Amino acid sequence: MKFKVFFALTILFNLSSSYLGAAVLLKANMWSKNMTLNVVFIDGSDQQKQWVKTYAPLWLEDSSLSFSFYDDFESAPKATHIRISFTGNTASVAGDHKDYFSKDPTLLLNRLNETDLPHRYIKQAVLHEFGHALGFEHEYRSPNWPHGNQIIDKQIKRCLSLMNMDMDSQHCHKINQPLSRQSAFVTAYDKFSIMNYTHNVELNDNQSKTVTAKTTLSFLDKLAIRNWYGN
Ligand SMILES: [Zn+2]
Fold first, then answer.
1. 53 pLDDT exceeds 60?
2. How far apart are CA 89 and CA 167, in angstroms?
3. pTM, whole model, 2 decimals?
4. Which domains does the chain have, with CATH numbers?
């Protein structure tokens, strides 16, 4: 698998570590409205595929987009938009990658191999990574992120530690930089968004604040998809 493909990605979904995310949509990575996104499974069990087919469409209820699921490349059209593997990491490229004819994965859900993973975390992993697949980024990159740059620094360090040696180290800086209002549609900072990871933020007065990972789409997540991908 080409790790390179995960240019905008956001590395591992690991609740014990600290990551963040929310309604921040990358304008340059948006799919066209009214599009049917062909989603193909590269591998995975019937149960894993079923979890994806059940939860991913929750994003699209009030949108002009739809998903068509294909259990393998043989049954899929030549052009595929989201290609899922249950191996490697739990991560996704951000939105439209323009690479429709490759066989490389664009969305990884290795977390769904964990034994006895509670159902709410299965749902959370699918919704969070499909948020990325639709072009949503982590909330700490929002111009409205209220808690300073410490998370960005932490994310860059973590990214560098996971990065292959042959990768451009600038990559880690690039994918974690704050986004401008020109480059992204943003809601107000949303601590309830599915795109948040559990994270401790140190505040100036020696206090710390915990941002908690959610397991369902928030009001603003739903508003965002309706506003920016609606009819
Ligand atoms: Zn993420």
1. yes
2. 17
3. 0.84
4. 31-133 (3.40.390.10), 139-229 (no CATH)
